[in-house]
Design brief:
Main location: nucleus
Pfam families: FAT, FATC, HEAT_ATR, M-HEAT_ATR, PI3_PI4_kinase
InterPro entries: ATR-like_M-HEAT (IPR056802), DDR_Repair_Kinase (IPR050517), FATC_dom (IPR003152), HEAT_ATR (IPR057564), Kinase-like_dom_sf (IPR011009), PI3/4_kinase_cat_dom (IPR000403), PI3/4_kinase_cat_sf (IPR036940), PI3/4_kinase_CS (IPR018936)
Helix content: 55-70%
Family: Belongs to the PI3/PI4-kinase family. ATM subfamily.
Structural class: mainly alpha
Largest sheet: 7 strands, antiparallel
Shape: globular
GO biological process, one term: telomere maintenance
Number of strands: 14
Length: 1302
């Protein structure tokens, strides 16, 4: 308070009297705190505890602050008492301005203190002299603290209740006034809005205090239990009298009024929070009459928030949407053509509605129909001249976008309220007329006008601030263009051309890191075209034909970029008009964009014919020598691309080859010829090599299937063998090339290439017998091996780490050429990244399989005399890893007495303690997960891991033993960075499943990030480090700030008195089991529904309690919904079961849903004594926390996007999972080992086959395992899975430990 609030005000007073008041306030607060000249000057040797504490507190002040307050330690300012004026509540309507209201209310609260002995009021009391409407610094800061103190009450209960009532009356008066429509009186509207924001701040403070109070009570109870040697109960929702008082007070504030006021103040997350609370209240009262209006209100809120998925969800809850509701949904989803039609219909019936007219103009604006926009605005203003203040900014924007300067000047002549569009128009006019002073003055004023809203919105989120950042971006480019032409006044044409190219290159680089959204890109591109027009006019005057030609080219490329962005966003009519404007650009890019537009529009045949014809013509022109494609290298939207980027000609050929393949309208040889041309024309291009390899892979898989079909027959067993192995060689060759050129497609190429190569080396059954075609097979394998060898020698070592588990799992490959190459790869990785490699190799080094251990030791022996990048011998590091791994295994396997909850490292694990400090890096996920370069230029110099990699320095003595079945142990260590890190040592659990799943999930996160729809929705899986130590033990990175779902729900049900004893639940489920076995489906379903009624959903309350601030609440709920959707889809694909409430954690810092314990994979739950019938957990509480839309909207759409990404990358995902077939789990003990130690396992193969079918979009009936698999679309597959997960018939038959009623 002193440093951040009082000292700044003291240094910049409005008058000397106020400065003396601030001096007195600081003086008294220093006195109350105990600061004196003696205490702060105390010598270190003579310190006692109190003065030492004061000295430490004093030193926490900043140096400028100390300079300001030190003199006040000895001053003796005095302030006379002021006369207290009695007030009556409510105050709000009786004062004219917000500052006067805030001063009056704060002063009155301080005058009527509840407890004279309260330290808080002693502090607040000295602040009364600086509470003034002329400086709101102090009242804004202390009002929430004062109100909290008063609400908590004093010894006089009646007086306390009276003061609480007065505060509530004042809050309701503010909300009541602010909930009314705006009056048009600027002063009154400003007063209402500022007062409402003050109330919001107050409510947020009280809600946050309640949360912190709960945490404090829980922490105190846990500490007391720990001192007593007991485990504190974690399933109780602690509350004391003080929290109950505040909760009761907050409950008296009407949620519907809060929602309305928040919406008017543009605090949309807050509005949604209170609106949903009000909806839930109406549902609990079974009052369904107002729900339709409330859902419509939700639509408006989501529309303002640009939450298209949520809008879709809330719209599904309105059975018969009105035309206005349909328009809102179209706007939210970007369907501007349909929204335009809706507005036209509404205007037909209500032509005098300004909001409808503005909505229609916005549709035209977003569709890029600026000519129509100008015409429409002009027509409206002829009938409603009084609307000019709202509409002239639209006309000004259309004018500068169309370079209609006369119209722009006419629009700017109107004296209407300022807007960014009009300010930008004035800047462009000044630039065109070379009025430098006016230009820079306008730019400065415009930036100043943006600064305020930018500051406010940036406090909420970057998304809210983005629109203002985009405006600053546009102003920056106007200024850069102006400076360029100022330079041109003294330069020749060649110099100008050089600088134009420099500015354009800078713009392209800047745009390459901006959002790809059409509504972000188009304003910038439109501005650039206008600036090019201004430059063309200047070039014409100076007769600079070269500059003019360059500007025309860039102008055309900007049109193409707009066309591409519009097409990708689904605005096909807008895209069409854009590429028509680019027709003057003589480049294959124009043809390609037009054909892509045809393809997107469903005219596939015409797109192929036109593109093929254009390429044939271009080829003929080249043969005749009549054309030189100087613009071939112009990039269509790939700004900032690396030097080896593809030309538009190559892009066109790749598109043609892909379309011919997809539509099956081209012969294989024609497609291959096109690919060969692209390989010649685009040397060292990763994408070309990848696409060619991908096509060869498709041919290989088709031919291989044909070959095996023939092989099973009695005739023509050798036919097609040469084709199969030749195609396999081509696949390996081109995938290896792609990996050499870059890492963009590494997850699509590397796992698949390794699988094909290793299968080729292993598969002696390609021919009909061992001797047939042996020479040909050896020759083809030797060729493939040479491609692999060249790739291994040329690519950076970090590439291997993306598939290192796959490489290590095949260490016992029976083909010596393959096993030797695998060893070479492991040696190469060990030499460069020993820490990351060793953590993944230790589980094999400690394996129960002797052959696997022997192979790993052979790798270690090859590198032991090398020195790693860290500068110390690798043999030392390897031995450190071995000893540390063995000691951690000892911790896992230590026999713990049943009642023991804490172990001591000093007592039980002395050898572990003696190992520290070590050079071993802490196995955090952030240190073990490789990052990839952003482009191919950075491939060689890329650093895949953080610079700082803390190592293990020491272990905490206390080891906490968990209460679960296997008694895992929580170990905490200290890193070389001084921070503490915790890990869970798990015994009797094959963590290779968990580790592989984390690798699988990491790969999925990369794929989700690459997909635009997924990236826009921020879809991801929460992952953490899992390190197997052998086949039976391992360590898991501890996730701080997480709580189990069961614990959370138990707390709320106990607090509400809804808990049901385990005995009673067991009795109910025994009856359900009895009814099921006797075929009485209706009875057991009715009984299960009776259980559900006793546990009404409560999980949404956790988000409200943990995230009381509305923006944090909405962000946390969105994160929870999306992470739940992603893990649900991934879990289904992998057959993940046993998703009971202890295996699902919630992150208390951001709301993420985190799943743990992946022991039940690959449909294992289907074979329990009571089989699991649901694909994932989607019980009533899980759905309850999604919000009032439930599964509709955000959850469903996130599921669909995730499933689409999984299905599109099925080959890569299957290649990663293939490690299970070669490094089988302990539970798959029936696997066979050949003499070389390579594993073959039928159970693993069957599991992989099921996963493959799921990724192919096939669904199997749950009730009939023998039924056929039915193919479904992504949407159909997701719908079927959701239906299964929520099926009460299936839920009723789940085992009781799964807690299906939760």
């Amino acid at each position: 308070m002193i440093e951040k609030e009082l000292v700044p005000a003291f240094r910049s007073p409005r008058n000397t009297t106020l400065q003396r008041h601030f001096a007195f306030c600081i003086q008294e607060l220093l006195r109350i705190s105990g600061f004196t000249p003696e205490t702060i000057a105390e010598d270190v040797s003579s310190r006692v505890a109190p003065t030492h504490t004061l000295k430490s507190r004093w030193e926490k002040f900043s140096k400028p602050c100390i300079e300001a307050i030190r003199p006040l330690l000895v001053t003796r300012y005095l302030i006379g008492k002021s006369e207290v004026q009695p007030v009556s509540y409510p105050l709000f309507q009786k004062v004219e301005s917000f500052p006067h209201w805030l001063e009056t209310w704060t002063r009155d609260l301080l005058e009527h203190k509840m407890n004279t002995s309260s330290k808080a009021f002693e502090i607040f009391g000295v602040c009364k002299c600086v509470i003034t409407e002329h400086d709101l610094t102090v009242p804004l800061f202390i009002l929430p603290h004062v109100i909290l103190t008063i609400l908590l009450g004093g010894p006089d209960q009646l007086e306390s209740e009276r003061r609480r009532s007065e505060i509530l009356t004042e809050i309701l008066a503010v909300l009541g006034s602010s909930s009314k429509p705006k009056s048009g009186n600027i002063e009154l509207d400003e007063k209402n809005q500022r007062a409402s924001q003050m109330i919001f701040t107050l409510i947020d403070y009280l809600s946050k205090w309640v949360r912190m109070r709960h945490q404090l009570v829980n922490k105190t109870r846990a500490a007391n239990a720990r001192k007593a040697g007991k485990l504190a109960s974690v399933d109780e929702l602690d509350a004391d009298d003080q929290t109950r008082i505040i909760d009761e007070f907050l409950s008296k504030i009407p949620q519907d009024i809060m929602a309305i006021v928040s919406y008017e103040c543009r605090s949309y997350e807050r509005s949604l929070l209170h609106l949903e609370r009000h909806v839930r209240l109406q549902l609990s009262l079974k009052n369904h009459a107002p729900l339709s209006g409330l859902y419509e209100f939700c639509q408006r809120v989501y529309a303002r928030m640009n939450e298209a998925d949520a809008m879709e969800g809330i719209s599904s809850m309105i059975s018969v949407p009105s035309l206005e509701q349909q328009v809102l949904e179209h706007e939210s989803t970007g369907n501007w053509s349909s929204a335009q039609t809706g507005y036209e219909l509404m205007i037909r019936d209500n032509p005098d509605r300004l909001d409808y007219q503005v909505g229609l103009i916005n549709c035209l604006r977003n569709l890029g129909h600026f000519e129509s926009m100008v015409t429409h605005v002009g027509g409206i203003l002829q009938q409603h001249a009084d609307w000019s203040g709202e509409l002239e900014s639209f006309r000004a924007e259309a004018a500068w976008r169309l370079s209609k300067w006369d119209l722009l000047e006419e629009s700017l002549d109107f004296d209407v309220k300022p807007s960014f569009e009009k300010s930008l128009g004035r800047s462009l006019l000044a630039l065109r007329h070379e009025q430098e002073e006016e230009l820079y003055s306008e730019l400065r004023l415009t930036r100043t006008s943006i600064a305020g809203p930018l500051t406010v919105s940036s406090l909420e989120s970057y998304e809210r601030a983005h629109a203002h950042v985009l405006k600053l971006h546009m102003l920056c480019e106007v200024e850069e263009w102006a400076k360029l032409w100022q330079f041109c006044e003294q330069a020749n044409e060649n110099d100008v051309l050089f600088h134009v190219e420099g500015v354009v290159k800078q713009w392209e680089s800047r745009l390459s890191v901006a959002s790809s959204s059409y509504h972000v890109v188009e304003p910038l591109l439109s501005l650039r075209r206008t600036l090019m027009d201004i430059g063309l006019a200047k070039s014409a005057l100076l007769e600079w034909s070269g500059v003019a030609s360059k500007l025309e080219e860039q102008r055309g490329l900007a049109w193409l970029q707009s066309a591409r962005a519009a097409r990708k966003s689904g605005y096909l009519s807008t895209s069409y008009s854009h590429f028509l404007n680019a027709a003057s650009l003589k480049s294959p890019a124009v043809i390609l964009e037009r054909c892509k537009w045809l393809w997107r529009n469903g005219e596939n045949h015409r797109a192929i014919v036109d593109l093929r014809g254009a390429l044939d013509k271009l080829k003929g022109d080249k043969v005749e020598g009549g054309i030189i494609e100087s613009q071939t290298q112009a990039s269509l939207g790939s700004m900032g691309a690396p030097l080896d980027r593809m030309s538009d000609l190559v892009k066109s050929k790749l598109a043609l080859a892909r379309w011919l393949d997809e539509t099956r309208t081209g012969h294989m040889q024609e497609i291959l010829d096109i690919f060969k041309e692209t390989l010649t024309e685009a040397h060292r291009c990763e994408k070309v090599a990848f696409q060619v390899g991908k096509y060869y892979l498709k041919l290989y898989e088709n031919e291989r299937q044909k070959f095996h079909n023939r092989k099973s027959s009695t005739t023509s067993q050798n036919q097609g063998y040469e084709t199969v192995v030749a195609l396999l060689g081509y696949v390996i060759r081109h995938f290896a090339r792609a990996l050499t050129y870059g890492s963009k497609y590494i997850y699509q190429t590397l796992p698949r290439m390794l699988t094909l190569w290793l299968r080729f080396g292993q598969d002696h059954g390609l021919g009909p017998d061992e001797s047939a075609n042996a020479d040909g097979r050896d020759k083809q394998f030797t060729q493939a091996q040479s491609y692999i060898k060249k790739w291994v020698s040329g690519c950076p070592s970090y590439q291997f780490l993306t598939a290192f588990p796959q490489i290590v799992s095949r260490i016992c490959h029976k083909n010596k050429n393959c096993s030797d190459m695998l060893e070479t790869i492991m040696v190469k990785v060990l030499q460069v990244y020993p820490q990351q490699a060793l953590w993944q190799m230790m589980s094999v080094a400690k394996s129960n399989n002797v052959l696997r251990v022997r192979r790993i030791e052979n790798v270690f022996s090859k590198v032991k005399r090398d020195r790693s990048v860290a500068g110390y011998p690798l043999d030392t590091l390897i031995e450190e890893f071995k000893r540390l791994t063995q000691e951690l295994l000892n911790v896992c396997n230590h026999n713990v007495p049943s009642r023991e909850t804490v172990l001591s490292i000093k007592t039980e694990f002395r050898h572990l303690l003696r190992l520290t400090p070590t050079n071993v890096v802490i196995p955090l996920q952030s240190l073990l997960t490789v990052s990839l370069p952003s482009n191919s230029q950075a491939t060689a110099t890329h650093k895949p891991f953080p610079e700082e990699q803390p190592s293990i320095m020491s272990f905490h003595d206390e080891v906490e033993v968990m209460t679960s079945l296997q008694r895992p142990r929580k170990v905490t260590l200290t890193g070389s960075d001084g921070r503490d890190y915790s890990f869970l040592c798990k015994p009797k659990d094959d963590l290779r499943k968990d580790a592989r799943l984390m690798e699988f999930n990491t790969m999925i996160n990369k794929l989700l990030k690459k997909d635009s729809a997924s990236r826009d929705r921020r879809l991801y899986l929460r992952t953490y480090s899992v390190v197997p130590l052998n086949e039976e033990c391992g360590i898991i990175e501890w996730m701080n700030n997480t709580t189990g779902l069961r614990i959370i729900l138990n707390k709320y049900y106990k607090a509400k008195g809804m808990a049901v004893s385990n005995v009673e639940l067991k009795e109910i489920f025994l009856r359900i089991d009895k009814y099921e076995k006797s075929g009485k489906r209706a009875e057991y379903k009715r009984l299960f529904e009776s259980v559900l009624e006793r546990f009404p959903p409560v999980f949404h309350e956790w988000h409200l309690d943990m995230f009381p601030e509305p923006r944090a609440w909405f962000a946390a709920r969105s994160a929870y919904t999306r992470t739940t959707a992603v893990i649900s889809m991934v879990g289904y694909i992998l057959g993940l079961g046993d998703r009971h409430g202890e295996n699902i954690l919630l992150d208390e810092t951001n709301g993420d849903c985190v799943h743990v314990d992946f022991n039940c994979l690959f449909e294992k739950g289907r074979y329990f004594e009571r089989p699991e019938l649901v694909p994932f957990r989607l019980t009533q509480n899980v759905v309850d926390a999604f919000g009032i839309t439930g599964i509709e909207g955000v959850f469903r759409k996130s599921c669909q996007v995730t499933m689409k990404v999984l299905r599109a990358n099925k080959d890569s995902l299957m290649s990663v999972l293939e490690t299970f077939t070669h490094d089988p789990l302990v539970e798959w003990s029936k696997g066979k080992h050949d003499k070389n130690g390579e594993s073959e396992n039928d159970q693993a193969n069957r599991s992989m086959a099921v996963i493959q079918k799921k990724l192919d979009g096939l669904i199997q009936s749950i009730t009939n395992q023998s039924s056929s698999w039915v193919p479904l679309s992504v949407e159909g597959q997701v719908q079927d899975l959701i239906s299964q997960a929520m099926n009460k018939d299936f839920l009723a038959r789940m085992y009781i430990g799964w807690a299906p009623w939760y």
